[in-house]
Specification:
The chain is an alpha+beta fold. The chain has 2 domains: 24-53 and 137-208, no CATH class; 59-124, no CATH class. It has helices at residues 14-18, 24-56, 135-163, 170-208, and strands at residues 58-75, 82-96, 102-109, 119-124, 130-132. It has a 5-stranded antiparallel beta sheet with strand order 3-2-1-4-5. Helix 2 runs antiparallel to helix 3 and helix 3 (135-163) runs antiparallel to helix 4 (170-208). The radius of gyration is 26 Å and the shape is elongated. The relative contact order is 0.16. Residues 1-20 are annotated as: Disordered. Keywords: Membrane, Transmembrane, Transmembrane helix. Residues 10-20 have a biased composition (Low complexity).
Length: 209
Amino acid sequence: MAQVHGSPGSPGSPATNTAAPGGPAGLGRLIGVGLLLAGVVLLALGAYFGPYSYATATPGKLTVETCTVDYKYRSSTSSSSRKRTKTKWCYGTFTATDGSVKNLNAELKSDALHQRGDVMEALKTGDTSYQQDHGWVGAIAVGCVWWFGALVPLALGLLCATTGFAFGGASDFQRSRQAAGQGLIKTVYALVAVGVIGFGISMLVMFFV
């Protein structure tokens, strides 16, 4: 008696199971869309915390009255020891460059402990918030940290959305790599490399500015 095999479109056929919306490929594309959205959000945050915040802040000077160090302790997850972090704060009178604002009780995080009477370049970023003014170089460096960081989820999102890669291990990556082709794979590698290198350089610029 002849056996009847399921057709390619039947519910039990391999082709239908592979293309099922809830399968690994469908999940991978859903993950890809999420990563692409995350990348776009990071790009927007970079613009906001970098150039936009600097352009809308009020520049001025802080005449230092006193500086203190705030110590905080936290437990290390890898050992029973407690790590100590310290934050330097300076307090004094902030005077806007255009004379529009004067606050006798301004405070901001400082890179160093200053003596009484020292004058620091500062920015008024909110009603009661201030920060050191590192110029446009510092503002762009802050933006670049977010922008270069965004390249990693954008690259992975492009790979996932295009091929259905769902981070399912070596076999899933191999399948996705064959589906993507050399052009897309090279683009993804290049975006990740540029993102990691650019992020590191931007962090160094922020540290030394």
